[in-house]
Each structure stands twice: as C-alpha cells, then as structure tokens.
Inverse folding.
C-alpha cells in the first residue's frame, strides 16, 4: 500500500492529462456541485439518466458514479442498466447510497443496486453503510448522527461479501476493504454544513478510479484530496456559502506541497 | 402575539438544538439553495419525491415543504400523498404555489393541493396568492409585478377558508391569518435578483414550524430572519452572485444582536 | 450589420426596461445558473417542462430556450410541443444540443428537434454542431475537444438548410448564418472550468432574441456580453468557484464602457 503526497499527486496529474469522462447518474440537489468539482479536479463530467442512452454513455466514460439521493423508479432502472454495461466493459463503478436507512425504499434500492453486480466502491456515512448490511437502524435523512467507527464491522462485511472498497465518511473518514482499514483525518466540520459534500466525494472517487485500478488506493486518494481542499477552503471561508466557492477554487489550485503539508492518514 | 428578537432567537436556538429534519418536495431550480439555507439555519434537509417513499420520509420529518416550481403529474401525486400523511400525523405543511396564475395548470394544481387538506402556511408573492382565490389575474411567470398589499384581501379570505397562515412576499412582507396582519420590512431589493429566494423563505418557514406550533408566529420569525440575513448579505455583496454566498454565511452566523438591531415589523 | 458597444448596450437597455419572460426547458445541472444569469441580465426566467403547461407558458413568454443536457422522453415531448406553439406564435426559439454526438440518442434527439420546426438559433460547441449535420464524429460528453473552426462548414450548411443562425462556442466564438460569419474573441479559458457556461450563453441568447428580431445580431450581442462578463469575472476570480459568482455580479453591473473597452469581434 502506497498512499502519500507523491502517489496522490501522480493520480491528479493523470486526471489532468487524460481528462477522463465521468458518467454520473446522480441526484438533482448536487448535480451542479458534482459537475463543478469534477471539472475543478481536471476530469470531464457528464450527467445522463435516460434509459435510451445510459449504455452508450457509460461506454465512452471511464467511470460510472451512481447516487440515489433523489431516486425514482425510472432512474433506478437506468442505474441498473448503466451498471450492467459498466460491469461488462470492466469500468469502475462507485455507489453513493444517499439516505439508505432513512426509508425502506432507499434501503431496498441501495441493496438491490449492490446485488445487481459487484461494485468497485461504496461511499456513505456511517448510518448509510450500516443500513446496507441489513441491520435495523434508522438514519435521520441524509445526515449521519453516528461516528464513522459505528459502521466499521458493517463496512468490512460489505467489502468482503461484495469484493469492493467501502468508504465511511464522517469526522474521520475510514477506507475499508476485506483486508485493511485506513483512517484519513483531513477535512473540516464546516463541510457538513454544505449540501452534497459527500456526493462530491463520491464523484471524485469516480475520477480517481478512472486513472488508478487499485480501488482502495484510489478511494483513499480521493478522500484525502477532498478533505485537504476542504481544509484550505474552511480556512478562507466565513461560512458555508463561501466554503463551497473556496472549495472549488482550492481543488482547482491544489499543489503537491498542500498535500505534503496537510495529509493525515493512519493504518488501523 | 409575541414577535421580537428574543422570540426569534429562541426558535433559532431550538432549531440548532433539535436539528429538525425538513422534508422538501420542491423544484429542480432551487433544491441546492434550499438545502443549503436549511443547513445554514441549523436544520437538516431531505429532498425526496418518489411516491414509494414520501409517506415514510414525512413520518420521520418534522415539517413538510411543498413547492410547485417545476411541477409535473407524478410529482403532484407524490405531493398529495405526502401531504395526506403529514396531515394524519399532525405535522406542519407549508406550500409555495410558484407561478400560480402564470398558467392554468399551475393555478389549478395549487388550488387542488390547497383543497387536499388544510395546510399550515401558504407563502407566495402577491400575484400567486391572488390567483389562489379564483380571481382572474395573470402573473408574469414567477416574478410578481404587484405590490404585496394587492393580495391582502385574497390572503385573508384564503386564511379564513383554509384555517391557515398566508405569507405575501414582496418589498414588504405581509403575514396574514383570519384575525391579524403584520408587516415585516426587512430584506433588500437585490434579493429579487437571486432565483429561489422566495423558495428559500418557504423552506425556512418549514424549519420554524418544526419548533413552533404557532404558525403565524413561526412564519413571521422565518420571514424576519430571511430578510435580516438578506440585508446583511446585500450590504457585503457586489451583485446577485455574491449575495447568495453572503446570504448563506449571514444565515449561518446570525446573532441575536443582528436581529435586535435590524428587525422591523408593524401590526396593521 | 451593426454590432458595436452601442448596439449591444441598446439591447441590454431594452431587456432592462421590458424584463422579458424567457421560458426555459433545460437541464437539471444548470437550471439554477441559467435562471440567475437571466435575472442578472435583467430578464425574467421561468422553468416549466410539464406537457400540460408548456404551451400556455410559451404563450406568455417572449422567447423559448430548449436545452437537451439531461434529456428523457417526456421532456422531449414537452420540448416539441413548446416549440410548435412558439413557432405558431412567431416567438424566437434557441436550441442547445448539449452532448449531441456523444450518444446516438442525443444526436437523434437534437436532429429531431431541428426538424420539428425552423429554429431561430442553435448554439453548441464544435463537436455538437458538427454532429448535427450527420457527420460521423464522436464528442467526449459535453466538452468539445475541437476548435470552433472545425465546425464552420457544418454550421453554414445547418444555417442554410434550417434558415437559422448558428453559434459555435469555443476559444473563439463564431456566429454563422447562410451569408456571413463573424468571430468574437471575448471570454477566458477559466470559463470552461465552470459547468453550464455554454448553457448560460444559450439562455442569454434567448433574452437578446426577445428584444431584437435580427437573430444574427442578437446572437452576436449575447455572445459578446457573456464573453466580456466572463473576462471581468476571470480577472477577479481565484478559481472556477469564484468565477461563477463574479460572473453573475459582472453581468449585473455591466457598463457600456466595459463593452466599449473589451469588445473584440471580426468579420470573416
């Protein structure tokens, strides 16, 4: 395992140089933020949900981002179709089970998507991840009131069962697969006051998966980058409004030295 | 009736402390702003429109916000289902009849929703409120070209017939129920140059309704808070782009002293 | 042909004075930006896509903006219905064929919309415009990797066949009709790092079409204005996040002198 400023910077350079197309089927609330964050990082976002085109779009994309934040039946069908095509073409897929645990429909949908094919990465907060293993918990909408550690066993079991990497976002971010766990302590509490920061993390994982075939490392890289850009932004911001603006600017201007100076990660 | 800096601040503290989940079925244009404004105020937003989950979502929420800004048939069905469930569970409901009066479809939809069950609060501009009582007027899309006073009799009749509070937004904001009218003169003209400021007001009313059972007072509190945060933001802004950023920051950092200093309301 | 600071300023004044209602059937990603840009320019935006109301909405609007960025079948039906009504009522229509060329579904949809009725203006990047004349090219999502000049013959043929103006956006913007081509060199590369800047250009063309019956000149005016506001914003911005905020502020505060100082256009 090789996660450091150099390995992160190398992936960022690859994103800048190859400008990977990232196909997002995501929620209405965050589409604009997600697209802007992918652009700021150097990737090329596209949002497309029509059942008539998702297979064609995923065929020209280098990663697929699925987010159930404002789900409905026709969108779920399109998600499944896109996921199956991505799987066939061996393209990485990252799932954001927004609000899983909040309603039976969201929990069942997230579980159905997980069973559709083996995903590459699943990213959520502790309550969402916990709900995916069939435990009886109730999340409060899309906010997590649980510490990241709360879902660590659920994440391990999910990672093992589905041969994927699981990212638990929270005050501490945990990157989990069947064999290992690392903890990233970048980020800032003010980020939780901006809607869709988690969705942005999921989309950026998609961009890193497009240039790094090791899903565990790609997920750690993306998680560190969003945390570091968030720290820089929070230092300049006077509230959650300006945070989101500074976040995009920080992501766009991120330097290797910023990563060297700020990266905080631990093996667990 | 007790509306002053102290009563407003008390509600804000309750929102901070209880972080009420606010269920929004709202329009595509403002979902992001609305979610961010609720977060900045201290509430927890969720957007969910699937017919399969609206009842479950409203069951765990503390208020329901309905906004017809980009309406379509499946969304209207989901709105009605959510409203009926909220009514059953005695949860407050606030309706934003965006563009009522602009097309027969919007006017009829707004009227249908009002007849579904007794709403707690209806908030719109003068043209929208006027159109709800069956008067023949034509609004120009979602902007009001009418003064708030234009709709005062319509608001009174609506409030009486539906046992609800009506908020007429404009240069002057009027809070109306069957017995009383108050006028709030906070706010700034530049706010009208930012899309969805009215929708944000409606969502914030939802948050105040979650912590204050007096709908008239809760509506006045929310209206004053958005006006005061808007004034602070307009003072710092160089145009409508920066206004929205400063607005979220101002809402997040609002102090009791700001309210004491700026609150301008009158009984009529 | 009369394109200069005076002619542009005259149209802007007409927009300010008449506040034209612009009916947008556009994509989820940019709805908020588009609405805010139209407001900053002085127009009045409305977003409405329900098949039940598009004809009524377009009847009270002064221009129709169609954008296929996040298309699906029900939206396409509504677009066609709105376009037919706009055509009947002789209202200007501008089409943004977002992602045409990226998937067969997008290309076919854009071509179907073009065949529905004679559009007033089509605006896209070089790859999108190129794909509309049935050439076999593959765009990479919504970004263009081609120079504007690449599509100039396609644009001329499209303009001739459909009796419309075609705008090719890129580092250089080209305004094309059957008889003439002009090139506008305003703008800044950082604008390409903000999602939906092209969509905003399309919406602003709608606003200029509402006050100027010469579609070629209206398109040139809108293109120059967005480029000039973008330059002012890029000069103040520290990245793509702050660019979008400064862009709205610059558009709102644009002065005739800014246009006089910065306008760069050439006949070709």
């Amino acid at each position: 395992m090789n996660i450091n400023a150099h390995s992160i910077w190398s992936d960022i350079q690859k994103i800048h140089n190859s400008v990977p197309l990232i196909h997002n089927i995501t929620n209405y609330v965050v589409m604009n933020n997600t697209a802007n964050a992918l652009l700021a990082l150097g990737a090329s976002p596209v949002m497309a949900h029509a059942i008539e085109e998702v297979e064609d779009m995923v065929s020209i994309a280098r990663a697929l981002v699925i987010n159930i934040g404002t789900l409905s039946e026709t969108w779920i069908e399109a998600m499944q179709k896109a996921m199956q095509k991505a799987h066939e073409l061996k393209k990485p897929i990252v799932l954001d089970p927004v609000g899983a645990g909040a309603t039976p429909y969201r929990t069942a949908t997230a579980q159905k998507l997980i069973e559709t094919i083996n995903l590459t990465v699943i990213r959520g907060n502790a309550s969402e991840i916990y709900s995916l293993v069939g435990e009886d918990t109730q999340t409060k909408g899309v906010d997590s009131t649980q510490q990241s550690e709360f879902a660590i066993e659920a994440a391990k079991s999910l990672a093992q069962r589905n041969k994927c990497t699981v990212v638990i976002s929270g005050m501490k971010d945990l990157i989990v697969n069947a064999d290992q766990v690392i903890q990233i302590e970048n980020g800032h509490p003010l980020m939780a006051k901006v809607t869709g920061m988690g969705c942005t993390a999921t989309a950026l994982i998609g961009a890193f998966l497009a240039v790094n075939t090791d899903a565990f490392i790609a997920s750690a890289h993306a998680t560190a980058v969003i945390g570091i850009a968030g720290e820089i932004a929070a230092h300049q911001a006077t509230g959650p409004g300006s945070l989101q603006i500074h976040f995009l600017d920080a992501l766009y201007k991120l330097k290797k030295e910023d990563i060297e100076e700020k990266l905080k990660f631990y093996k667990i």
